[in-house]
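Subject: for your reference before the review

Hello V.,

The reviewers asked for a structural picture of the protein, and I figured it would be easier to keep everything in one thread rather than splitting it across files. Below is the amino acid sequence we used in the manuscript, unchanged from the supplementary table.
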Amino acid sequence: MWNEVSQAAGAAARIGELIAVAPRIVAPSAPLPLPSPARGEIAFDRVSFAYPGRPGEPVLRNLNFRVAPGEVVAIVGPSGAGKSTLFQLIERFYDPSEGAILIDGVDVAKADPQAVRREIALVPQEPFIFGASVADNIAYGAPGATREAIEAAAKRAAADGFITALPQGYETQLGERGVTLSGGERQRLAIARAILRNAPILLLDEATSALDAENETLVQGALEALMKGRTTLVIAHRLATIVNAQRILVIDGGGIVEEGDHASLLAAGGLYARLARLQFETGAAALTGEVEAAE
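And here is what came back from the structure prediction:
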């Protein structure tokens, strides 16, 4: 018993150290209020950023762009170009080294971080599922939501079918990190969360990258329903999923190197056209191989 007490004391000390860490991102003494009702406009004004551990290696350099309320904008580029960093800055997990990020005209560094994050719904590449009921997992972003609202969100996310097939339906207890669910089922729960949250800004971070074709079709349909009427930023490696975006920003080396819709960027023959050619030719070759193997 003394050995167990000693181990517990050490663990408790480490937890205490974590709790005592002062957060770097805090609300200002007099935070600026965000407009109500929210419009969902996002603007990057000459933003540069380097992670605290690598101050001499900027990830973003003098970034300027604006996303209008209700607009769907895709962000593409090579790995390490700074795409995910954009999302972390919008959510104010970090502050930019230079410049400002504005939501509805308000600098997020001068607003309350909780107020900023209430305006945002995120569907990540790897959604976190808690060891709780299905209903609790969906309601995570909207505490106090009614059962009717939870079920309505699940239906819009094309998740109601597999949920009702579970042993206890919406009261089924899920394993930690959703080990009892498939990748597509976890993604649809994350989309249901975002629908229930009903925020004016939607961030989609590779939301379909790990899915098979059948699950991707279900998830893509749910995402299209979710994006209607919301300002949406989409990070995508698979360019086939964003060909209908109103605007595509191509990021490389921490800056925007190309901007336009799918057709105009293909015609320009730049980085986007090269990435698209590689993906679509590889996909066609893989499909041909599958057909030949089946024959």
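For the response letter, the relevant points are probably these. Residues 283-295 have pLDDT under 50 and may be disordered. The two ends are 66 Å apart (CA to CA).

Happy to draft the paragraph if you're swamped.

O.
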